[in-house]
Automatic annotation (TrEMBL):
GO terms for cellular component: cytosol. This is Aspartate carbamoyltransferase. It comes from Leucobacter triazinivorans. Carbamoyl phosphate binds at R54, T55, R104, H134, Q137, G279, P280. Pfam families: OTCace, OTCace_N. PANTHER family: ASPARTATE CARBAMOYLTRANSFERASE, ORNITHINE CARBAMOYLTRANSFERASE, MITOCHONDRIAL. L-aspartate binds at K82, R182, R238. Belongs to the aspartate/ornithine carbamoyltransferase superfamily. ATCase family. Pathway: Pyrimidine metabolism; UMP biosynthesis via de novo pathway; (S)-dihydroorotate from bicarbonate: step 2/3. Its EC number is 2.1.3.2. Residues 2-146 form the Aspartate/ornithine carbamoyltransferase carbamoyl-P binding domain. It is an enzyme of class 2 (transferase).
Length: 326
């Protein structure tokens, strides 16, 4: 692996390699092996041009648990606010000797630009770019689904073969503001590669342009989707009001009534169903507090699993000889 830029071009084999490596990382942490020496002497830079809580902290924890040195760079308070370009910032990181750059950027395609530019030798990990992709979020979501649906240790070979390595036949409903969601896009491509059946549930104004040409079922009614698709995974998305034009958004009461996971809908989920949310959550809008805090909810497991998945990604990218591409 050289860079991790998206899940659209990530092969099923590479995805499963990351998920299985994340199982090893999780197992090491359960054995109280908090710190592994794998990236000793390497430098990882967290380059964040947009706000983040979970992703930035999780990448920092992951790199430190692999014994890497970590430099946190936030565009706010840096020379970016004086107009410094991505190229000049990248060349500064090259001069510092960065081995890995974790980048979050409001512009779709910025991580790929950095990776392909030749400005920097480091491995690039996309931590969310515009409305394009958020690949490690999708990987940690898939990891969480594997563990919840097939048990921890999913993906580890046993006498029955490979059950639980992928998500073959699992029904996943992704609900809400799909139009602005890089999480939804990364999940769609990854879940398809892993054999899951994905349904988007959203008002027409919150579906991305071109979604009807993607490998996904579309429902406008959450009640109909829950009844017809009987999803084992219900992934609620944050309403991204900061990216939204008022014309696209039904009023909040109407949105919660039609597309929110409220207490009544929570009761109607199939027995084994889990409820996911990438965070941060708008409680009472896209998800009720009861749903967010219920036993079905994986919200905090997703955060915890994110560290193992990001450890796996950093390890595969930065340890030893890097391969030509992923
Ligand atoms: N899920 C996610 O990307 O959260 P943050 O914006 O807090 O990183």
């Amino acid at each position: 692996m050289r860079h991790l830029l998206d899940t659209r071009t990530l092969s099923r084999d590479d995805a499963i390699r990351i998920l299985d490596t994340a199982e090893d990382m999780a197992a090491a942490q359960q054995r109280e092996v908090k710190k592994l020496p794998a990236l000793r002497g390497k430098t990882v830079v967290n380059l964040f041009y947009e706000d983040s809580t979970r992703t930035r902290i999780s990448f920092e924890a992951a790199a430190k648990r692999l014994s890497a040195d970590v430099i946190n760079f936030s565009a706010k308070g840096s020379s970016v606010s004086k107009g410094e370009s991505l190229k000049d910032t990248a060349q500064t990181l090259q001069a510092i000797g960065a081995d890995g750059v974790v980048i979050r950027h409001p512009a779709s395609g910025a991580p790929e630009r950095l990776a392909r530019s030749g400005w920097i030798d480091a491995g690039v990990l996309n931590a969310g770019d515009g409305t394009h992709e958020h690949p490690t979020q999708a990987l940690l979501d898939a990891f969480t689904m594997r563990r919840r649906l097939f048990g921890s240790g999913a993906g580890v070979s046993d006498a029955s073969g490979s059950r639980g390595r992928d998500l073959d036949g699992v029904s996943v409903a992704i609900v809400g503001d799909v139009a602005h969601s890089r999480v939804a896009r990364s999940n769609l491509w990854l879940l398809n590669a892993l054999g899951a059946h994905v349904t988007f549930v959203a008002p027409e104004t919150l579906l991305p342009y071109g979604a009807r040409d993607w490998p996904v079922k579309i429902h406008h009614s959450l009640d109909a989707a829950l009844r017809d698709e009987r999803p084992e995974v219900v992934m609620m998305l944050r309403i991204q009001s900061e990216r939204m034009h008022a014309a696209f958004f039904p009023n909040e009461r109407e949105y919660a009534r039609n597309w929110g996971l409220d207490d009544a809908r929570l009761e109607r989920l199939v027995d084994e169903a889990i409820v996911m949310h990438p965070g941060p959550m708008n409680r009472g809008l896209e998800i009720s507090s009861r749903a967010a805090d219920s036993e079905r909810s994986t919200v905090l497991e997703q955060v915890a699993n994110g560290v193992s998945v990001r450890m796996a990604a950093l390890y595969l990218l930065l340890s030893g000889e890097r391969e030509a591409s992923i």
